[in-house]
Amino acid sequence: MSVQILDGRPVAAAIRGELRAEGARLAARVGHPPAIAVVQMGRDPAADRYVRAIRRAFEEVDLGFQLRALSREAPVAELEAALRDLNADARISGILVQMPLPPHVPPDLVPQTLSPEKDVDGIHPLNAGRLAQGDQRAFVPATPLGGLELLRGYNVPIAGRHAVVVGRSNVVGKPMALLLLHQHATVTIAHSRTSDLPALTRQADILVAATGRPGLIRAGMVRHGAIVVDFGVNVVDGKVVGDVAFEEVAAVAGAITPVPGGTGPMTNVMLIGNTLLAARRAHGAD
Question: Which CATH number is associated with domain 142-264?
């Protein structure tokens, strides 16, 4: 069987061109380019790399980028004040808070403080609830939204198929399951306490891995001809790898996303799209 590689780079490039044109139209209308603000507490190599990637992605399409860097030990009140300041800043269309946050920050502080109208990564309870209900007003987390758009870009049929999502995080696993459900897939969510995970994953027409455990999904866990979507980003011996053992799974899958180069390029494009959507809504253009 010849496996199809679901390369996110050409799909992301095509969408990026459309978003650049839209951003230019919005900038001409409101007098300044839409912009995202990233709030980061402390320094971490992986987090720093992601923030730099967001900056590059936005600058490539001539949109604004602002970084609010706080120390890891900054008091909760300082983080809350930064969020409220950005909520009120008319030049900022979207806000993203780099996760994870230090342990002293209450887990509900950001979702409770962040404006749902600027919540371009879909963590506010209002946006999560809208997504659950299939409400088109929801801001959807950028990573799973990018995964869905990648499947669409390669015309992968979803309706009527059995999708198994391994992982139940609020930012990838759960929203991806909901997105697939809204596309009329039959969806099963698996996680660390699922008994006999291989027996379940072998039932999947579409298998999604979002666990943060490198190489968790092996060839014996995959149905022949299945579509495999890997959201994993793990560094092993200095190399970025996914949650799927790519080489061996590619031998049995019908299609598979590589790591890097699969779902990754789609994430920041979706973040740009959500920021432009927020800008359109803020200026009555949606």
Answer: 3.40.50.720
Task: Region of 28 please: left (phi>0), alpha (psi -120 to 50) or beta.
Answer: alpha
Average pLDDT, the chain: 96
Its pTM stands at 0.94
Query: What is the Cα–Cα distance from 267 to 6, expressed in whole angstroms?
Result: 14
Q: Is 266 helix (H, G, I), strand (E, B) or coil?
A: helix
**Once rounded to an integer, what is the mean pLDDT over residues 238-256?**
96
Report the C-alpha gap between 12 and 1 in whole angstroms. 27
Looking at domain 31-116, its CATH superfamily turns out to be Leucine Dehydrogenase, chain A, domain 1 (3.40.50.10860)
For the chain, give percent helix, strand, coil, nearest 5: 45, 15, 40
pLDDT value, residue 1: 58
pLDDT at 32 over 70: yes
